[in-house]
Specification:
By secondary structure, this protein is of the alpha/beta class. The chain is built from 18 helices and 9 strands. The strands form 2 sheets. The protein has a 5-stranded mixed β-sheet with strand order 6-5-9-7-8. A hairpin with a 5-residue loop joins strand 5 and strand 6.
Length: 449
């Protein structure tokens, strides 16, 4: 590991009082758009290979290889190609993309232009959350500058043969539009409902044409990779999760904010070194990457924050966006889970029955427990519901239901005694169900505490 200096935040001062917005002139004066000019002398295949060799994985949640995703776009061009930038940052606990747009919007636009060269993109859409009023104005101003300076427009990128148009598209505040196909539906002016796959967006995305979809932070990683090479990028992070990462720290910490470090730092390091330590009590749990990833327990401070260790040792769905919500010993975990599930029940698009009904029933059960009417069978029902919904059991179109399931699974399993204390035993039923041991065989596996 060799994270010695900021990469994504090199233009953003660590002191909030000294931060300023960098538009085109400031960006160029600090080395901006050198990578784009270098990419103009590279073939599309070489750009894709460089990104693939770097090991860059998507920073939007799934952690899929960014280079491999680009390679799925057909090389034989038979019509328009599109790029959709997912700036609809709506995962609770996540605020790192808006941080980049707040202060360094041209780093995103340079990543957009390089990706367009690699995938023969004609039109790029920056799909930005409608509530981000300031970021919308900043991004629109940066795009306007990029047109004036010959990056976008029919004159070609810096006068080359590669022509790229770019538009800012405002969403309407729906969480489901953070899912890539839901985003595409909304971009086309339809209701934000996720699509069945296949066909995948790389073949039939926006307006039925090949489309690349990338998160803001992922695209901001591309210019430094082109400038300094894959080997340099791999000096940071872990072998399977290389590079720098933005960590959004919130909750019971002394210094909440966005911090840049390398992938593979421990949760303990993130809490005590990056964000100034615990506030108001000892560590009890941390939502590790936005609430859809689940929660890390009190004894898991040694977990490495990369795309693998969180999943395989932490029992969560993954690192996600690395939006950390830290909770101290005084946190009521039943209320915390109810807040998560209430959000999912509200944001479900309603297209899939397991998600629509399952999230609603989870909320009702947790409401009942908090009202003092919980029974042992409520925990059994919660653990049964979480196993029967999501794309991993193959019951829903998108992963929103998986987020509901993983939040419920990890909260109940890791704080079982706290939940059980609010759900006293009843007389044995005819089925002989006992608290916490009822397992349902599904592709998601059986429940273990």
């Amino acid at each position: 590991m060799a994270f010695n200096e900021p990469v994504l935040t090199k233009r953003i001062d660590a002191d909030p009082g000294k931060r300023k917005l960098h538009f085109y002139d400031d960006y160029v004066a600090t080395g901006g758009y050198k990578s784009l000019r270098a990419a103009l002398d590279m073939t599309a295949a070489d750009i894709i290979k460089t990104v693939t060799d770097s090991g860059l994985r998507g920073r939007g949640g799934a952690g899929f290889s960014a280079g491999q995703k680009r390679s799925f776009i057909p090389r034989e061009k038979k019509g328009l190609h599109y790029l959709a930038v997912n700036a609809d940052e709506s995962e609770p606990g996540t605020f790192k993309d808006r941080y980049l747009m707040d202060y360094d919007p041209h780093s995103l636009l340079e990543g957009v232009a390089i990706t367009a060269l690699a995938t023969q993109v004609d039109v790029a859409y920056i799909f930005i959350r409608g509530e981000f009023h300031h970021e919308i104005k900043v991004t629109e101003q940066a795009v306007k500058e990029a047109y004036q300076k010959g990056i976008f427009g029919q004159g070609g990128i810096f006068g080359s043969k590669h022509k790229l148009e770019c538009y800012v598209h405002m969403g309407a505040g729906a969480y489901i539009c953070g899912e890539e196909t839901g985003l595409l539906e909304a971009l086309e002016g339809k209701r934000g409902w996720p699509r069945n796959k296949p066909p995948f967006p790389a073949i039939a995305g926006a307006f039925g044409r090949p489309t690349v979809i990338n998160n803001v932070e992922t695209l901001c990683c591309v210019p430094p990779i082109i400038e300094r090479g894959p080997a340099w990028f791999k000096t940071m992070g872990t072998p399977s999760s290389p590079g720098p990462k933005l960590f959004g720290m919130s909750g019971h910490v002394n210094k909440p904010g966005v911090y840049e470090d390398e992938l593979g730092i421990t949760l303990d390091y993130a809490i005590n070194k990056l964000s100034g330590g615990m506030k108001g009590g000892k560590h009890k749990g941390t939502i590790c990457g936005g609430i859809s990833m689940g929660v890390l327990g009190p004894e898991q401070l040694d977990i490495k924050l990369d795309f693998d260790d969180v999943r395989f040792r932490g029992g969560c769905l993954g690192l996600g966006t690395a939006g950390m919500i830290v909770m101290n010993e005084h946190t009521d975990m039943i209320r915390a889970l109810r807040n998560c599930v209430r959000f999912y029940a509200h944001e479900s698009c309603g297209q899939c029955t397991p998600c629509r009904e399952g999230s609603a029933w989870m909320k009702k059960i947790l409401d009942r427990i908090l009202a003092g009417e919980g029974r042992a069978r409520d925990l059994d029902m919660l653990l049964e519901l979480e196993k029967s919904q999501g794309i991993m059991p193959g019951t829903t179109i998108c992963g929103l239901a998986d987020g509901t399931a993983w939040a419920t699974r990890t909260f109940v399993n890791k704080y079982y005694e706290e939940f059980a204390a609010k759900c006293p035993e009843e007389r044995p039923t005819q089925m002989g169900i006992k608290r916490g041991i009822r397992n349902v065989t599904t592709p998601m596996g059986s429940n273990t505490r």
